[in-house]
Amino acid sequence: ASVICCRVSPKQKALVTRLVKAGKGKITLAIGDGANDVGMIQEADIGVGISGVEGMQAVMASDFSIAQFRFLEYLLIVHGHWCYKRIATMICYFFYKNITFGLTVLWYEAHTSFSGQTVYNDWFMSLFNVAFTSLPVLSLGVFEQDVPATICLEFPAIYQQGPTNVFFSWFRILAWMCNGLYGSIIIFLITSTVFQHQAFRQGGEVSGLEELGSIMYTCVIWVVNYQIALATNHFTWIQHVFIWGSICLWYIFLFVYGFITPLYSSTAYHVLVEALVPAPMYWITVLFVALVCILPYFTFSVFQRAFLPMDHHIIQEVIHMKKDIEDPKMWSKEKAKAVEKALIGFTARVDAKFRHLHRKIHNSVSQVRQA
């Protein structure tokens, strides 16, 4: 719904905004172009300032600035949809990757009767969120696009995914958390079972704490980066560099860190060169664990796209199959449906009531004339 204020004082504009926030409990957006709109812009949840002939006061007090009022459509329909999808997916992924990493430590502590011995090297734990998983999340929050900008404008119904909170509901948050729980269990059980008793190198050596911690950590790095690759809809060369480069960075760090004196590298001393790289079982286990961990998400994505597709899934498939070019009539028909579907809210309900009332009056007049 929209509220338009005309010929009112700056304080009244702010009070109207506050009234809508308190009375309806909705997220409010205020847009203005002058100093008399500053109070309204600051009172709203989101403030948009228009830079123009009335000065820059509204722009300085706003969250977003546009040059002309017509750019509001692009700001909301395109950037609003993109930002909602990016932030929602990014927050859910933060829950997922930290649960996956943190619970592996908990499972190992429970396995060792809470002896206090950590399975990972101290530097491994410190650099997980700083170096090895930070850049892929950054690329997701900056470059992710489920559909192009032109499609957002042609199919405004996609914008309704934000107001209806499709991607940040409790169901989706808990689903990501359960996925992280599942991944941590699989990583710990498979790695601890495979390398606990049998030899995994040609010399017959069994794995110790140093090898087990490095293997589990490698599995976590592979799994969380595979997961973000599956959750990404729009790839650029930057995202490829960040995602696959993070995995390579882990191996580079382990190689360099392993050559530092054991006084500082402790459990990571020569573990990559002497223990992990020469062992085929290490590479087989890492690949197997990564595939098993991402299997539920991959299966759900395939099932959803095949049987319960969302709006952007259908559009992505149409564009991929080039139906928008081969069948322009169908494309125009779908665009018309999308525009009609987006007409929801107070204005549409009032319009529907007026049309219903007009129909009743028309029927009553027709009956009177017939009588």
Describe this structure in words.
There is one protein chain. The protein has 371 residues and is mainly alpha-helical. Helices cover 68% and strands 3% of the residues. It contains 17 helices and 3 strands. The chain has a 3-stranded parallel β-sheet with strand order 1-2-3. The longest helix has 40 residues, at 72-111. The two termini are 42 Å apart. The model has no long low-confidence stretch (mean pLDDT 87).
Gyration radius, rounded: 28 Å
Distance between the termini: 42 Å
What is the number of helices? 17
Whole-number mean pLDDT: 87
Shape: elongated
Q: Which consecutive residue ranges, at least 5 long each, have pLDDT under 50? A: none
The helicity comes to 55-70%
**Structural class, judged by helices and strands?**
mainly alpha
Strand order of the largest sheet: 1-2-3
Count the strands?
Answer: 3
Describe the secondary-structure layout.
Layout: H1 10-24, E1 29-32, H2 38-43, E2 46-50, H3 57-61, E3 64-66, H4 72-111, H5 122-132, H6 134-143, H7 149-154, H8 170-194, H9 209-231, H10 237-258, H11 262-265, H12 271-276, H13 280-307, H14 311-320, H15 323-326, H16 328-341, H17 346-370
Parallel strand pairs: 1-2, 2-3
Helix pairs in contact: 4-6, 4-8, 4-9, 6-10, 8-9, 8-13, 9-10, 9-13
